[in-house]
Structures are given as structure tokens and as C-alpha cells.
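thread from #wetlab-drylab

HS: before we spend reagent money on co-crystallization trials with zinc ion, can we at least see a predicted complex? here's what I'd submit
DV: go for it
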Amino acid sequence: MENTSEKRRASAGRAPEKKPGKRRRRRSPVRLVAMAVALVAVLGGTFALGWHFGVESTRYHGDILLVNSEHRLPADYVPEGLVNLYEQRHSFRLARSDIYLTRETYEAMEAMFAAAEADGVNGFIVTSGYRDYDRQAEIYAESEPGLAQEPGASEHQTGLSFDVTTETSEGFESTEQYAWLRAHAHEYGFIQRYPANKADETGIDYEPWHYRYVGVEAATRIREADITLEAFIEQNG
Ligand SMILES: [Zn+2]
């Protein structure tokens, strides 16, 4: 990235010296405007390029996006293809009518909950999906220290994660819905992102309700090896 941007800045700097002085003076107002436009374009391009490279080199393994307190998303990162779950066919309940996920995540999740229902396990209530940077900043500001992720560090900004619960007076981890997800989520491409006793790797305490879409192959490998997404990316990066 550094090389590319330096090359780009260098070529932008050379451009005005190509033409003879006389001609350059006569056309200077036009040239100044053109140079300003070119400068904005180069700076904009460099910024976009840097951001793109940053995401690919530091936050992805293959096409798997890693987000945690050390690998943050920019404030303007919005996943492509978000769908409102309320407007889609859903074999699960929704805590609100404004929960969004990427289409691929929604389709995998719908297949998963339909399969659970076919197994006689239903009553799942999805409580949270995509959360934008500003919303996460509000949550962070309102939360006790250590309970919420800082803006940019929340996996909910990816649109690939959701929280689920069911009507229970005990914890979600003691329900049949949780047991079903524990046994089958990977078959639909989901992992339990924050397992018990792995906070030293994930940075987040046990969250039996939080699931993350990574695709069937990665989810199956992560489940079988009983590892975190951090460890999986570390081992396969
Ligand atoms: Zn969550």
C-alpha cells in the first residue's frame, strides 16, 4: 500500500512539469482546477485502496471476516445486501421488526431454524442482528465498562451475526433450543462465536446466544476442532 500510494503521489507531482512554461502560465487557472480535481481523485483513491488492502490483509482469512477489539471495522463499513428479517419468510420469532442481516446469513439461518422446527424444536426468538457503528457507539456509551464492545469492534457490524434466545426462566444455555444449535448450527454454516472458557482468545465471555455465519466448511472445521474463530484464522492464515 505504501509503495502504491507513493507512486501515485509521485506521478501526480510530476504531471505539471511536462508542459512548457509559457503554455502552462496561460492555462494556469484551468490547470489549477484540473490539478485540484486530480489531487482529490488520487487522495480519494489512495484512501479507498488503503482501506481495501487493510481489510483484506488484516481482517480476512479467505473470505472470512474477523472482527474483534484488535481487528476493527471502519465507521463507514456497511455490509452489502442487508435484508430486513421481518420482511422475509421466517421460521423463527423476531423481538423487533427492524433486525437486518446479509442475505446469505439470513438464508442459512432460515434453513437452520426450519430444520430445527422439523426436529420439533422451535420457539427461537432472534433479538439482534446488524448494528451500525453509531448504534454500537451509543450502546458502548450506555454500558458498564467491559460489557459492550467499542464501536468498530462489534461483530454485529458485519451483518453476519445474530443473537437468539427463547422464552425461558433459566439461561439460554440450559434450553433444548441451545442444545439443538450446539449440535447442528455448523451444518448451516454457523459457529457459536464466544464459547465458554475461551475469553482469553476471543476477548469476550461466554455468550451462548451469539452465532456467527462463516460458511459450512469453516463452521464444521471450527466445531470439530472445538476452537475459536481467532484460533482457526491463526492456524489457517
Ligand atoms: Zn451478539
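DV: The longest helix spans residues 28-59.
HS: ok that's useful, forwarding to the group
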